[in-house]
Specification:
There is one protein chain. The chain has 16 helices and 28 strands. With about 550 residues, the protein is an alpha/beta fold. It has three domains: about 5-200 and about 365-440, Metallo-beta-lactamase, Chain A (4-Layer Sandwich), CATH 3.60.15; about 205-355, Metallo-hydrolase/oxidoreductase (Rossmann fold); about 465-554, Ubiquitin-like (UB roll), CATH 3.10.20.580. An eight-stranded mixed beta sheet has the order 7-6-5-3-2-1-21-22. Strands 8-9-10-11-12-19-20 form a seven-stranded mixed beta sheet. Helix 5 packs across helix 11 (about 370-380). The longest helix has 20 residues, at about 520-540.
Amino acid sequence: MAQDKLKMIPLGGLGEFGMNCMVLRWQDDIIVIDAGLMFPEEELLGVDIVVPDISYLTENRDKVRAIVLTHAHEDHIGGLPWILSELNVPVYGTEFTLAFVEGKLEEHGLLDDADLIEILPGERFTLGPFAITPIRVTHSLVDCVALAIHTPVGVVLHTGDFKVDLSPPDGKPFDLHAFAELGKQGVLALLQDSTNVDRRGYTPSEKAVRPRLDEIFSQTQKKLFFSCFSSSIHRIRLAMELAAEHGRKIAIVGRSLDNSTEIAQDLGYLDPAPGLIINPGQIKELPDHKVCVMITGTQGEPMSALSRAAVSNHKHAQIEPGDTVLLSSRVIPGNEKSIYRMIDHLERRDAKVIYDDGASGLIHVSGHGSQEELRLIINLVRPKFFIPVHGDYRHLKRHAELAGSMGVVEKTLLLEDGDILEMDRSSATKTGKVTVGRVCIDSGGASTDVVEDMVIRDRKHLSEDGIVLPIIAINKHTGKVENAPEIVMRGTAIDGEDLIAEARQVVQRTLDGSSGEEKADYGVIKEKIRTDLKRYIQKSTSRRPLIMPVILEI
């Protein structure tokens, strides 16, 4: 039967980092794996976040059974408020993941209506024709799972984000055994994280950073500012242990760190010694060598606590000569400028800044598997079909090549957002495309608004060429122009009295050449002025500012 095929449709995350969202469909049942966001590139002016276009899901809303989450990073859960406001379906995730989701939904006033269902590694649950077994994996976050999805045509295994860490700080290692068992039973398709496909060898265990961090704690004479991603619970736990060993109290500064440490303490992932954590207000009451400030802002985000402290603009976090600032994180591509600008400010304050995985030891390890781990999983699972996920096109392509070169996979498939892949027990073919894209969201102020492409285009236009406002006063009874047109220019880099005088003449000639009827129809007269003025400015300056005629009725 033609319709007896499993459909796999990525709505985001294949061709970009972030916005991860994968659809699996069997006949009239759909499940969604992850619902991520992406942070905007520089050209998306004034946009706060980017989420996938879910029109495919809204068109099939009666078929969507649930959203299943692999872990709590923003690029996997950040789009949930947007999706759930359009499509209220149950959300499945591990305890820690759902604790993060609750905070996010509460912020958007969606928590009361949400149906959040906890899952446990190794415990199978069923959604329509899909039987799903979560499998414990290790990552830079806790409580992460891969998903083994048993479908009518075979098992689809989605790794989520992972690295193979067999001795993680929380004592819950990567479950290699479960992957091997699935490999024995047979896996139809493996979807594997491509983030670190360019890195040779293995990704070091989270414990590998301990020696270097220990050294930094012991060598620091004054205050130590420790900055890492707020979701890196293992790293936070390690910093707390080292602070206790070196006789330092910990002050937590920054909202996201506050939230995540609170959740991790509630769920037993962090167990700081009694009295270890102090209020940020108490920092100045203690000698400098007794303080470790855990602070948000490793990426130099403009309003983060560390960025504010770097310009002496933070109430509690005061950076003074001789203090040490440790950035225990990687530089996310695209953030280099803001990070180095922040480091410059810190250096101006005579702080010692440690921010590079130098030869002196590791201060950060990745949460994603390198080439040997990717090979290891492919070898264990031996899938019929291999589909790389999570990454730019070049990562996906390299990953497909890596899998193809191993000789254990029957077919590698390169999918991009919107592709429809149809699979049965013996074949997998791309059969078409669905509508995908990105939805830009501006969450400034009280409301969350979708920013249309046209708005971004206008913002880009304004930022490059500025704006010209011809202002004309027209008597609404007689249709006569009352005085000479005014020209206001902003951000145009066009100067010169002559040019402005000539622009006035252009507008005046347009008005003189228009009939009374045209002048009475403001839509018509505005368009005529805009066209003539645009032609003149373009011809004389080669610029294309936004021209908005303003008509004042008198």
